[in-house]
C-alpha cells in the first residue's frame, strides 16, 4: 500500500509538472505586446487544437444511442476453456486527435470483484505519450492474490491529460464472464452481485439489452440501503434454432445494466457465450 501511495503521488506531481510547462509554453495573443514574444497565436476562428485520449467507453456508447458491451474490445484479460485470467491485462489507448500529440498522459488501471457497483482498487498508473492518430498497447500485470482468486473480475481504465478536450471517452470498463455451451449448457443462470457502494439509500433498475436469446433478470428493481449488496439472477436460454459446432462456433453476449431511478448508469456485466453444440 505504501508503494501504491507513492506511485499515485508521483503521477500527480508529474501531471502538475506537465501542466505547468504547457502553461509556460502558451500565451494568449494580447500577451504578445506585453511580453514581446509569444510561441502561439490563434485567432478566434482557429480554436486551440487539443489531444483526444480515448478508450472504448460505455458512457460514450450510451450517449451515441448505441448499446454498449462490458466485453470491452480495448481490454483483454482472459483466455477461454476454461475462462481464466492472463498474468497481465492488455489495454489499448488511442489519441484520436489528427494533429496534437498526447504528451505524458496518465493511464490508471483499477480492478474490482465481479459484479456491479463493486469497490475499485488502483493497481497501477502508467505514463505514455501518443502521437496524433496513433495508439499504444500497455501491459498491466495482475497481483498474485488476484490471479489466485475468482477469475471473474472487473477492470476499469481512467485516462488523464490536462489538455484533453473530450472526457466522455476517457473511461472504459470490462466486467464479463464466459463459457462454451458444452460447459454451461444451453440453459443456465448467472448470479450477479450488485452493491450500493454509497452512504445513502438509493434505488436501482435492472434490465437486459435486446438479443436473439431468451433472457430475463430478476429482480428488475431494488431499493438499496446504504452499503447494501444483493444478488440478481440472469436467466439465459439458447433457442433450438441456434446451433453451433466445435468447428463453427456462434458467439453471443448478454448484457445486464443497472441504472439509478434517475437514469444514471451504475454499471453493467456481459455474459459471453460460445455456442458449440
Q: How does this structure look, described?
A:
The structure is a single chain. By secondary structure, the protein is of the alpha+beta class. It is 16% helix and 44% strand. The strands form 3 sheets. An 8-stranded mixed beta sheet has the order 5-4-7-8-15-14-10-12. A hairpin with a 4-residue loop joins strand 14 (250-260) and strand 15. The longest helix is centred in the N-terminal third of the chain and has 24 residues, at 2-25. The radius of gyration is 22 Å and the shape is globular. Residues 1-12 and 14-41 have low confidence and may be disordered.
Brief sketch in words of this structure:
The protein is α+β, with helices and mostly antiparallel strands and 277 residues long.
Write the layout of secondary structure elements.
Blueprint: H1 2-25, H2 31-35, E1 53-54, H3 58-63, E2 75-79, E3 84-95, E4 102-113, E5 121-130, E6 134-141, H4 144-148, E7 153-160, E8 171-180, H5 181-184, E9 187-195, E10 202-208, E11 214-218, E12 221-224, E13 229-237, E14 250-260, E15 265-275
Parallel strand pairs: 8-15
Antiparallel strand pairs: 1-3, 2-3, 3-6, 4-5, 4-7, 7-8, 9-13, 10-12, 10-14, 11-13, 14-15
Distance between the termini: 47 Å
Helix content: 10-25%
| Shape, per Cα inertia axes | globular
Strand order of the largest sheet: 5-4-7-8-15-14-10-12
Specify the structural class: alpha+beta
User: Which blocks of ≥5 consecutive residues have pLDDT under 50?
Assistant: 1-12, 14-41
Amino acid at each position: 500500500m505504501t508503494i501504491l501511495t507513492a506511485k499515485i503521488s508521483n503521477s500527480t506531481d508529474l501531471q502538475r509538472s506537465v501542466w505547468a510547462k504547457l502553461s509556460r509554453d502558451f500565451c494568449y495573443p494580447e500577451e504578445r505586446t506585453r511580453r514581446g514574444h509569444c510561441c502561439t497565436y490563434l485567432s478566434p476562428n482557429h480554436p486551440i487544437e487539443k489531444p483526444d485520449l480515448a478508450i472504448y467507453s460505455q458512457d460514450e456508447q450510451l450517449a451515441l444511442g448505441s448499446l454498449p458491451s462490458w466485453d470491452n474490445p480495448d481490454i483483454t484479460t482472459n483466455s477461454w476453456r476454461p475462462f481464466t485470467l492472463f498474468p497481465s491485462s492488455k489495454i489499448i489507448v488511442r489519441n484520436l486527435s489528427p494533429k496534437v500529440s498526447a504528451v505524458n498522459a496518465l493511464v490508471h488501471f483499477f480492478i474490482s470483484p465481479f459484479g456491479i457497483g463493486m469497490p475499485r482498487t488502483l493497481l497501477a498508473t502508467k505514463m505514455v505519450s501518443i502521437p496524433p492518430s496513433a495508439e499504444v498497447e500497455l501491459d498491466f500485470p495482475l497481483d498474485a492474490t488476484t490471479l489466485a482468486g475468482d477469475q471473474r473480475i472487473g477492470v476499469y481504465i481512467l485516462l488523464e491529460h490536462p489538455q484533453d478536450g473530450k472526457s466522455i471517452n476517457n473511461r472504459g470498463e470490462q466486467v464479463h464472464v464466459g463459457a462454451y455451451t458444452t460447459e454451461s449448457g444451453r440453459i443456465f443462470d448467472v448470479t450477479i452481485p450488485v452493491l450500493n457502494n454509497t452512504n445513502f439509500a438509493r434505488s436501482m433498475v435492472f434490465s437486459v439489452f435486446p438479443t436473439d436469446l431468451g433472457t430475463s433478470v430478476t429482480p428488475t428493481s431494488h431499493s438499496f440501503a446504504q452499503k447494501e449488496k444483493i444478488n440478481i439472477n440472469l436467466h439465459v436460454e439458447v433457442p433450438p434454432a441456434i446451433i453451433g459446432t466445435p468447428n463453427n462456433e456462434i458467439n453471443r453476449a448478454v448484457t445486464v445494466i443497472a441504472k439509478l431511478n434517475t437514469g444514471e448508469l451504475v454499471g453493467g456485466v456481459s455474459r459471453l457465450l460460445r455456442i458449440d453444440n
